[in-house]
Design brief:
The structure is a single chain. The protein is mainly alpha-helical. It has one domain. The chain contains 7 helices and 3 strands, in the order H-H-E-E-E-H-H-H-H-H. The protein has a 3-stranded antiparallel beta sheet with strand order 1-2-3, with no helix packed on it. The two termini are 28 Å apart. 22% of the residues are buried. The structure holds zinc ion. Zinc ion binds next to loops.
């Protein structure tokens, strides 16, 4: 594992990411650090539809999924489970058996868990432009870095 995946305690992680809302908020912060901007018209005000994880532009009504362009896109698995999977994989906990993660996270079938793990691993290993653009590299660093480096 690359060095930038720094140790973060399970308790800290749980405190910072207690539910899907917290994960979604974190993802939004990573992707739009200066606040959401509509990709179609550049407007800065939008409604947030939390159930669907969408921004609805107040100006042009264009809807933007917060997961578009990331490995979470079009997934039916809640963000929280993804975050937990990334956490465990980044910490390289006991080699992380996919079967074990499927059981721990309550993911419906093995194929889904396998696909998720595959995507996460690829994102961690392949630091190409596509993933940089997706905000994933930045996400990794703040996500797994020590709590002290977080803004604010
Ligand atoms: Zn717009």
């Amino acid at each position: 594992m690359p060095k930038e995946y720094m140790e973060r305690s399970l308790i800290d992680f749980q405190k910072d990411f207690p539910d899907n809302t917290a994960c979604a908020r974190h993802l939004v912060d990573q992707r739009w650090p200066d606040g959401f901007i509509c990709p179609r018209c550049g407007h800065k005000e939008a409604w947030y539809l939390s159930k669907r994880c969408l921004f609805d532009c107040r100006n042009c009504r264009h809807q933007t999924s917060i997961t578009a362009g990331t490995i979470f896109h079009k997934t039916r698995v809640p963000l929280l489970k993804w975050y937990w999977l990334i956490y465990h994989m980044a910490m390289d906990n006991v080699g992380v058996s996919i079967f074990e993660m499927q059981r721990l996270l309550g993911i419906g079938c093995y194929e889904t868990a396998w696909l998720m793990a595959h995507k996460v691993r690829k994102a961690m290993v392949t630091r190409d432009k596509q993933y940089s653009l997706a905000g994933l590299v930045e996400m990794d660093e703040s996500f797994f870095g020590p709590a002290g480096t977080k803004q604010g």
